[in-house]
Amino acid sequence: MFDEADGGGGRGAAVSGLQILPCPPEDRKPALEVLYQHLPGSLRACMIDELLHDGQGGVVDLSGLWIARRRRWGLHADAPGRIVATLMTQGFGGRAAALWAPEVRTTWRRAEIAARLIQEALEDYKARGFAIAQAVLDATASGRNAADLTRGGMPRVTDLVFLRRDTAAPLALPPTDRRFVWQGLDEVDADAFRTTLQATYEGSLDMPELERARSMDDTLEGHRGAGRFAAERWRLGGVPGRPDEAAVLLLAAAPDRDAWEVVYLGLTPAARGRGLGAQALAHALDLARPHAGSLELAVDVRNRPAVKLYGKTGFTPVERRAVHLAVF
């Protein structure tokens, strides 16, 4: 917790008269009032009531709320101050955290308050052993949101493009002498799966900032928490007679829509540039087709070979988001 009242003993520069701390449970309602201050009153009230209800039921985790409040002085110095800013964060498996842009009620030193909130939350996650923190801003986010995250220690590193393809039409593949043979995680040796997954990260153009930021156990736990995990949907592909040419394909059912997601697709260095990526996507479509109407994935815009592959195989962009990242 950062508290200016101790004479600036908190981390970083003090913001005079401000207290920054994880939101106590009894303050969650006024904190959410600040977080959703731009919504119309009736909609804001309904959303807050629903969130508080879901939080009490364990459906939503509100323990990651942070607040900044003005300290009271004089006769009422011991009373809790007015909440002037709120930040939503959430920790996930695999030592990864997500942050959203903070909302600040006041205009006085607004940018400094927002940055301090982010900095304190990041320091807390770092102290608790987390490895990375990420924030993703969609096209509706203001430039102020991006500036707040950057000042708080989460610079923008890239954009992600989200793509979708109907599963109804199979993917036509050109003739080749190389064909993947696929097996599920429940059919293969776990160490072989891990070794191949590790190899697919070598020289990857998708978020290279994350390379070696976490252990393989962390990475697997993070992937397992995305969507609905089923071992048979985690696939290991190998080319017979060519042990260096392999792929890992991780699929999950989206919990809230008629879609499956490609959580991860990676090829070993020896398998790249040989048309095997299209085979992996064809396999994903075949698996998803009986269960979902569409297949979705995201790609780092800097990964030009992957962007080209997805365009050639019928995936169309639906959204673009900016990624802000802190690696501890």
Q: What average pLDDT do the residues reach?
A: 91
End-to-end Cα distance: 19 Å
User: Helical segment tally?
Assistant: 8
Count of extended strands: 14
Report the sheet-strand fraction.
25-35%
Topology:
Layout: E1 2-3, E2 18-22, H1 28-35, H2 41-56, E3 65-70, E4 83-92, E5 96-99, E6 103-104, H3 110-127, E7 132-137, H4 143-151, E8 156-166, E9 181-184, H5 190-200, H6 216-224, E10 234-239, E11 242-253, E12 259-267, H7 276-288, E13 294-300, H8 304-312, E14 316-327
Parallel strand pairs: 5-7, 12-13
Antiparallel strand pairs: 1-2, 2-3, 3-4, 4-5, 4-6, 7-14, 8-13, 8-14, 9-10, 10-11, 11-12
Helix pairs in contact: 1-2, 3-4
Description:
The protein is of the alpha+beta class and about 325 residues long. It contains eight helices and 14 strands. Helix 1 (about 30-35) packs across helix 2 and helix 3 crosses helix 4 (about 145-150). The radius of gyration is 23 Å and the shape is elongated. The two termini are about 20 Å apart.
Outline of this structure?
The chain has 8 helices and 14 strands. By secondary structure, the chain is of the alpha+beta class.
Give me some keywords for this one.
single chain, 328 residues, alpha+beta, 14-stranded mixed β-sheet, 8 helices
